[in-house]
Amino acid sequence: MRKPLITGNWKMNKTITESISLIKELVDFVKGYQETEIVICPPYTSLWVTKELIQDTNILLGAQNMYFQDEGAYTGEISASMLQNIGCDYVIVGHSERREYFHESSQEVAWKVRQALSFGIKPIICVGEKLEERESGSAREVVKEEIEAIFEVLKSQDAPGVVFAYEPIWAIGTGKSATSKDANDMIQYIRNLLKEKYSEKIAEQIRILYGGSVKPENIKELMAESDIDGALVGGASLKALAFSQLVKFRE
Ligand code: PEP
Prior knowledge:
Bound molecules: phosphoenolpyruvate
Mean pLDDT: 97
Number of strands: 8
Strand order of the largest sheet: 1-2-3-4-5-6-7-8
């Protein structure tokens, strides 16, 4: 059984002061709730204070990105050992905003996956197609290429510990979610690729999330699908009540 995972990606939002109030509210709202794994990914500047505030709670910590080198002259970058030292459990890699605005290639995303795993941090690997790719019928091909780059670095013994997030780019921050059926179809396709590459047993252990305008109004329908194991959430993770409703989608 795959435990549902709800991950909040705060993106470039929240000062340290604002982070403290959001975390305190959230800790209260989800206190003791064990049916969903909860991960929040604040900006780098708030990681440390977040770690302190979620100590001994049911909330885990994730970062939004990292670099694939160990250390050195890479101004502005953050390494896996820095995230490990803060106590990050997860790191998002290959978010479409990183791929698009910062020109991250699938090769770089794969290196980040390898680096995160070697420091014991679980990568949440984002994949997804643009609107024109969906409309031209090449969505699966695009997702397959992104996943195949990961296959180059992901060994079968590490595979059960990674998380994939299918995020159609046209659904991110637009208010326009994919239908639950379309999301599930692509996630099943991803799981089949994982079966072919590793094994049925491994593919059944890997969690695959959906991301793209997930909100309290559509979470139940998405989570009712056979293969959607949780959500990667942007906008709705910035409000403690809305995020806690996503976490408690079963209620
Ligand atoms: C995201 O940041 O990955 C995301 C899915 O954002 P939103 O929920 O705002 O669409």
